[in-house]
Amino acid sequence: MEARMNLFQVAPEAYTAMRGLENYITQSGLDRRLYELIKIRASQINGCAFCLNMHTRDARKLGETEQRIYALNAWRETNFFTTEERAALELTEAVTLLADTHVPDEVYQHAAVVFDEAMLAKIIMAIVVINGWNRIMVTTRALPAD
Hints:
Layout: H1 7-10, H2 12-26, H3 32-46, H4 49-61, H5 66-71, H6 83-96, H7 98-101, H8 105-114, H9 117-140
């Protein structure tokens, strides 16, 4: 497979805008390991090899275990994840599969019980940001780094 284009070389302003959203999340106080789990799970759903490669590496650097990374696509079937992580992963799936799920009330309400409104806003934005990155990288066929 060959990359189609480097969108960020063609439109550097787009990269600056995406980095601005990314910087908001990384400076928001959202737990970095939780953010990596969100990024990995959305990237699994979206089939983004570029982001999966990057974020599994980043998660490991933050101390994430191989066991949890490997089981992430089956998180419901394990006891490896906390209540907070499970609520965030459930919301990640619903938002990522928006056309299919329309984010069911019960998923949103569960997350709203687990997180205060400010943290829930950060999680929603984190999900939106990784879905944006995924869509850019999949569409342009960005190749994972070795």
